């Protein structure tokens, strides 16, 4: 008996070796693989200072209490962010499912039934002569009751299932980084929209001031016309200027409504007024920015880490797909009780049943589906490498652009301030000259128009300056932590 078992075991091992050799010899060649390039420039601006603004929490980076309250509400209520959080839960459950695939499957099986066979069949004839007890034949029809514990287990010899589980873990971590990247973008979008709203408030205040100035000049011109000092033409021109400025006021109001509702949408609430303090807009001074080193982007930027996790998952997919070419070994076992009568069900050893089987399966013919899966997995891995490198390059370019913008907007704002001061002073000068007939009405109109445009441009420059402060924080990877 022992000798027969050894012979069977040796036969199984020999068969397995033959299957392995056959499949190994027919494996497709390893595809061309290139490693990802993580090299970054040594610095952004020549500085080797490792201090990085991205490490500052957003509550300390943004000091406006109204803006902080908006961001805090958005992180709780934003629908898109909450959708992403559910995707993280889905990815976590995928990890759990993959982990269970390479563990034994245990279960309980129970059943009941009956069977009637023909008396003149071989089974029927044998049952007719079988005596369960002296003087008693086999029941007809024959009931069947069974209860057993069963187990199935695929031995993960080539780590096919384990690599699939690791790939699922990497994708779960990628979804977490995707959520962090969305948080960074959400904070930046709310901050930029908030500063745009403050800029619109200031532009509307400037328009109201200009309407008052232009209306005052219009009254003076009308008085001069009544005194026959000017013609009807300057009256009409000044009147048209006042109407033009008033029409711009309504356009600004519409822009304010849209900016408020954009913020309300991001915050996850229906349209309502947005609390803000627009008076201090022009006095806001961006804090000094410390960009750190480009290599720190690899750790600070959630989108780079997300691309890195996707690349790791793609590499594991290639390994798992290649393991499909190797034989798979499965083991199944069961133990329980089976009887035609419930009263005999637990009698041992008569009603005891058990089984143990192993199977070795290897693909030999028509492996096109497995090859296609393997080649596709390799192609996706190359895609993930390019995406990872592109994400690093894009992050570096974004930081460099925003650092340059901060410096240029600072210089531009200083010059615009001087321009506004000069043109604002020229308004009073042109009005006084016009009153004394030493300047014509066109000079007054042009001066007022230029002063209005310069003040609008000053506000726009301040907004761009604040946007650069927000965007460089986002580009460095700040906000998610």
Automatic annotation (TrEMBL):
Record localization: Cell membrane
A cellular component term, taken from the record's GO annotations: plasma membrane
Keyword Transmembrane recorded: yes
Bilayer topology term: Lipid-anchor
Residue ranges that the Swiss-Prot or TrEMBL entry lists as coiled coil: 71-98, 406-469
Cited PROSITE patterns: PROKAR_LIPOPROTEIN
InterPro entries, per the entry: MdtP/NodT-like (IPR010131), OMP_efflux (IPR003423)
A single MF term (Gene Ontology): efflux transmembrane transporter activity
Keywords recorded for this protein, A-Z: Coiled coil, Lipoprotein, Membrane, Palmitate, Transmembrane, Transmembrane beta strand
Residue ranges crossing the lipid bilayer per the database entry: none
Family designation: Belongs to the outer membrane factor (OMF) (TC 1.B.17) family.
The protein, known as: TolC family protein
Biological source species: Dawidia soli
